[in-house]
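Field notebook, page 475. I keep forgetting to write these up properly, so this time I am using the form the group agreed on. The chain and the ligand, pyridoxal-5'-phosphate, are recorded exactly as supplied. Prediction of the bound pose follows.
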Amino acid sequence: MKELEELEREARKLEPTANERRIVREGVVNYTERFINEIETIPAFEGERKASEVFLNSPVSEEPMALPQILNMLEKGLDEPGLNPASGGHLGYIPGGGIYYSALGDYWADITNRYAGIFFAGPGAVRMENMLIQWTAELAGYPKTAVGNLTSGGSIANLSAIVTARDSKKITSDKIKKTVIYLSAEVHHCVFKAIRIAGLGECIVRHLPLDDCYRIKPQELESLISADKQQGLIPFLVVASAGTTDTGSVDPLHAIGEIAAKHKLWFHVDAAYGGYFLLTDHGKKVLKGIELSDSFAIDPHKSLFLPYGLGMLIVKDKAALYNSHYYQANYMQDTLGANEEVSPADLSPELTKHFRGLRLWLPLKLLGLKPFRAALNEKLLLARYFYGEIQKLGFEVGPYPELSVVTYRYVPKSDDANAFNKSLMEEVQKDGRVFISSTMLDGKFMLRLAVLSFRTHKSTIDILLEQLGSLTKGK
Ligand SMILES: *Cc1c(COP(=O)(O)O)cnc(C)c1O
């Protein structure tokens, strides 16, 4: 009994008092308020990484650390070094977001800790998530019978899709070496990871020929499938991108969808980057044909501006997603009666999971769709604005932006173009006000502009244009 008392006294510290909660909450909120208020002057990139060593030098110990010291570690060691994805100046890779109300959704979800894996336990949580999935499915023109899952990101959504396709098309081990997957070399690398993790690494992977805008040529897909069939191979899966990471190109989804249906292939669309452009008229046109797919991945933490940690998978055939992911155990028997709604745990590899729905639901409800739609249209226009202005500065450009990515490079009179553009990128990164990244296209080192942060506006693009203009003057 004495031991119990002592243990309880110590263990109760896990429930701080109202005053203790207030002190830490105020420390965190004061800092995050300052972070948001000053975001326009906080660098988008800091190349010096040394400060992050503070975490290695401060191991976990029996004793607590004082709040001011903790806040200082977080500010200096966590938030200063490296890329600042919360900055509107993040114009590289695919920028992230971080809208504020999502944080409050997470805050609520973490405190009440509703169980969002099983309908029996968290009927409201599961219904909220299923409604958001249904809304996204309908946005893409999927039928009401479609199902899906809120994932941690696009990579896991793509993985679950490929596993589902594998099982649905009955690609068993004896068939793998004769099975063919069709995709573009521009597909996101997580698709290759997913193929390997799904045990399909020994499939034949055909890289489809691309047009001048780095999009799959559908006629070539059709002839490859026919040739493969004639050879006794098993055409199985075609993966298209609705917004490639490299150039933002959207594959011709409608034509691919018709070919996939004709030859009974599983058609998956990776819309992790571009999916929510479906909220715009332009996006609807460009992504036409996504409704013909069997599944798609889409990332609210990209084109809906959410903080990292939310992707989504949608699958048209409920039975297919379910068959690949459900499982039952004796200790779960009490949950079986509650089956009015499908449970996330039956549609994903996860059982217990973060209640991710609330971080999407809360901002959508508090703000309505209008500002999201406006921000997406703004990103499309900013990419086109940059595409026009950068040419006036003497730069070469890649394809006209279908969504919000522009590739470009400067060809100097004397220096090697690849080395020159790499140094341009490094100069912009060193300055730190904005961050840009690069890629290789047809052996050329290309700079990339990717506009997707909700905090990126015309003034941000003008900073980059002005920098690039002065760095190339007279070159
Ligand atoms: C970002 C991205 C992914 C990977 O998604 P994560 O959320 O980073 O796991 C997949 N495909 C495309 C096209 C992407 O842009």
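OBSERVATIONS:
- Residues 108 and 358 are 8 Å apart (CA to CA).
- The mean pLDDT is 97.
FOLLOW-UP: compare against the apo run.
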